[in-house]
Each structure stands twice: as structure tokens, then as C-alpha cells.
Amino acid sequence: MIERVEVQRVSRIYGATPALRGVSASFARGTITLIEGPNGSGKSTLLGLLSTAIRPSSGTVCWHPYGEAPEQARAHIGWLGHEALVYPDLSGLENLAWVTQLHGLPPSSLEAMAERLRLGAFARRPVRTMSRGQRQRIAIARALLPSPSLLLLDEPTTGLDREGVELLVRITREEADRGAVVAVIAHDPGLREQLGALPLRLHRGQLASESS
Hints:
There is one protein chain. By secondary structure, the protein is of the alpha/beta class. It is built from 8 helices and 9 strands. Strands 5-6-7-3-8-9 form a 6-stranded mixed β-sheet, sandwiched between helices. The chain has a 3-stranded antiparallel β-sheet with strand order 2-1-4, covered by helices on one side. Helix 3 (92-102) packs across helix 4. The longest helix has 17 residues, at 162-178.
């Protein structure tokens, strides 16, 4: 399992545009880090680097104990991005069943996750017929099913009602208590306090303390 992630002097440049500039940060097991900052500050790019989906232009990302080997770390990562990453013509439960097969999990793990996320009858419908909040619950369940030791959540409260947000907060804290490394991007006022999260603020691609 991933015990911690170390980001050292990481930069990421798209064409002539720097998204991150020399960012260093540490993400520890059993903690929740809330990545904050205005639009365009590099939050999603940083999460993409942690997820192995993006490679740094310079600097290093180290997933302990796997070192700088994203192909070894990838199996231990749960990622919720802006897209649900599910098949729209399959039902929510069919999508999750595919995830359990991919990871070699027993059917009981899907049943437990459906209960944990309070997936009601809507989960039997094709994803394309679901509301934004219902799709978000399916996507959260997909990210959580393999019990990742690194959990990355990009705007996880999108589309959720108050009950859904409360459920998400509880589950996220449970994942940290389980020992996962958790990093979250969110703009919701007060979410940092609700999660008991450590702040990491970016501004113009740098840590806020460095760019102020």
C-alpha cells in the first residue's frame, strides 16, 4: 500500500503555460489534505500528478514504498475526477460489478459498497438517465471499491445534496481513519473543518506562501 507521497520541486508546463512551478508537498497516511486555490492555480494538475495520469515536466513524485514508479503505484490509487469515468449505457451496478471483476473482488464487496453509498433503485438504471448527483455517487463508489491506499477526490461534492455531502464527509474521514492517504479539491466553505483536513493552498502554480 502507499504509505505517503512526496512531491519535490514539481513543475508542469503546457506549451508555454506553466500550470505548476516548483511545488513541494508531502501527503501522509491517515491524513486528509484539502488543496485550495482560485481557478487556474494548478489544483487539478497537482491531483493529476498524484494520480499518475500526468507526468511532471521537472521535479519528482515519489509514492512510498514504490519510489518514482507510477506503474507500481497505480493499482493502489482511487481517483474521482471531473468525469464519472463510467459507461453511460450500463447501469450503475453493472459499472461497479465490472470494477469488482477488474480488481478480483468478491460480489459481497459491491453489495457492501452499495449499502455504504446508499445506492437506491436508481443504481439499476443506465447511468445516462441519472441526475448529476446520482452519477456522482456511482463515481465515488467506483473510486472506493478497491479500498485504495491513495484516495484523490476532485470536487467530490459536485451535484450532491446536503445529505449526500454529509455522507461524503463521513466516508472520506473513514477512509483516512482506515489509513489511506487522502487529497481533496473543493471550494465548499467550511469543508476543511468538516473533514478535519490539512490545508495546501496554491496560487498561480505555486504554494501560496511562496507566491505571496
